[in-house]
UniProtKB/TrEMBL annotation:
PROSITE patterns on file: CDP_ALCOHOL_P_TRANSF
Name listed for the protein in its UniProt record: Phosphatidylinositol phosphate synthase
Main subcellular localisation: membrane
Family matches, as InterPro entries: CDP-OH_P_trans (IPR000462), CDP-OH_PTrfase_TM_dom (IPR043130), CDP_ALCOHOL_P_TRANSF_CS (IPR048254), PIP_synthase_PgsA1 (IPR044268)
Binding residues annotated for Mg(2+) 1, in chain numbering: 65, 68, 86
Pathway named in the protein's UniProt entry: Phospholipid metabolism; phosphatidylinositol phosphate biosynthesis; Lipid metabolism
Family stated for the protein in its record: Belongs to the CDP-alcohol phosphatidyltransferase class-I family.
């Protein structure tokens, strides 16, 4: 849903991207640095139960990572490899965030909630993979109530407030994310199934099975 705001964000980040481009940092370097920062904040701070400071560090590096596209557009260094690297590093960052939450909750004795964080991690991977696989097969799959941006905002806001002592907010957020991610998976399966069904006309030979 937040993808609808992407054009506005691109315009907002363009002046910053122009400034960062003058430093000589490449878009790919920004992507890698952002991912390393997010991963360090999550695996070092979240895993120790320091959810507020972990959220601050992660948010800073998430915002920094968002500059890679702006720098790429300003410098003309837009490439397929850059898009591949960005998507792959996003998966690494997501895994680090929810792994850090899971470890921190488990150490705090909240084993059940740690399990919910694990489910959020796995379901998030499935959400992303479903879209990538669908597009690789020639389908469109731009649907879902809880895409990556929504999942990150909910998780980080809740973790930050939990770190400030707000009760139950992280539990509510993780359970909500688990449900919304499941719904999103269902939405993407339904969308691709509808396209695949419409593409097969009566009398057409059945497609070859894929491994």
């Amino acid at each position: 849903m937040l993808n609808n705001f992407r054009p506005a964000l691109e315009r907002a980040f363009k002046p910053i991207g122009t400034t960062v481009a003058r430093t000589g940092l490449s878009p790919n370097a920004i992507t890698v640095i952002g991912t390393l920062g997010v991963s360090a904040g999550a695996l070092v701070l979240f895993s120790r139960g320091e959810f507020f400071w972990g959220t601050m560090v992660i948010t800073a590096f998430v915002l920094f990572d968002m500059l890679d596209g702006a720098v790429a557009r300003v410098t003309g260094k837009i490439s397929k490899f850059g898009a591949f690297l960005d998507s792959t590093m996003d998966r690494v960052a997501d895994a680090a965030i929810f792994s850090g939450l899971m470890i921190g909750l488990y150490r705090d004795g909240q084993e059940a909630l740690a399990g919910v964080a694990l489910y959020c991690l796995v379901s998030g991977v499935v959400v992303s993979y479903a879209k990538a696989r669908a597009e690789g097969l020639g389908y469109t799959c731009n649907v879902g109530i809880a895409e990556r941006a929504e999942r990150l905002i909910v998780a980080l806001v809740a973790a930050g407030f939990d770190g400030l002592g707000v009760p139950f907010i992280l539990a509510v957020a993780l359970w909500a994310l688990a449900g919304l991610s499941t719904i999103t998976i269902g939405q993407r399966f339904a969308t691709v199934y509808a396209q695949a069904r419409d593409a097969v006309r009566p009398g057409d030979p059945a497609p070859e099975p894929r491994p």
